Amino acid sequence: MMEQSLKPHQAKRGQKTTLIGILVNLVLLLVKGTAGWLGNSYALIADAIESGTDIITSTFVWLGLRVAARKPDQNHPYGHGKAEPLAAILVSVALLGAAILIAVESIQNIQAPHEVPAPFTLVVLAGVVLVKEVLFRRIAQVGAETDSNAIKADAWHHRSDAITSLTAFVGISIALIGGPGYESADDWAALLASGFIVFNAYHIFRPSFGELMDESPAGDWKAELEAIALTIPQVKRVEKCLVRKTGFEYFVDLHLEVPGELSVWQGHDIAHAVKEAIMEQKPAIYDILIHIEPARAF
User: Fold this and answer.
1) pLDDT in tens, 230-282
2) Strand 237-246 vs strand 249-258: parallel, antiparallel, or unpaired?
3) Is residue 261 assigned to a domain?
4) Fewer CB within 10 Å, N- or C-terminus of the chain?
């Protein structure tokens, strides 16, 4: 058995990327909060709230990756990989909470007249959208390369922040162009942004929950593994192929049918040959449990 349930370089890379996101969000929180307060823009303040939740959830992700990287122990023989999708679920819950808070405050501000936001808030928002989109693309790339739901969730949280900022930019622009009577456009923009955030929360939650429930991973895993197994002599049929994802890696259960007259030693050697062939072509697989049974007579 390998020593770790999470590849060290993947864990370190994910943690480093997450820490960068936390530092960027800390700066943006201060900038957006100050600009929103001075510029009389609740949409920008809502955006600052979103950055605050980004910091909290990115911390969850960072902690989740650290836990997932721990070696298997007596109480966790399969490793700690489930901490990674659990962190992603916490991100989705935090996003939902932020969306509800923003929606409630937006409705209250729509009902209460206020001044038009200051023009300089548009410059701040344009910069935020650019920074957040760059951050999203960078973290999403790391998430795709490491196949980590937690890192992907963190990336989408940054994308939701960019969307919030973009809608705020549109809302403030409408308020400034329209003048008196359009003051609430800023608040309607924040309300619209809350809807996008809810959508992103579900987008993050669904695959992570599936992973915790040992849902079969997306893709043609079964067909690919069966094709590799059948290249080994004496393997007549793959009777069962089960795949589940834990953190960055995968666990596989295979039931192979071989000629019934083979010895136990021969069956053992076939199982090892199949395991080696699969793990050579599928390095993301952590372990394979193979059951040998006699081939059915036709």
Assistant:
1) 999 999 999 999 998 887 778 999 999 999 899 999 999 999 999 999 999 98
2) antiparallel
3) yes
4) C
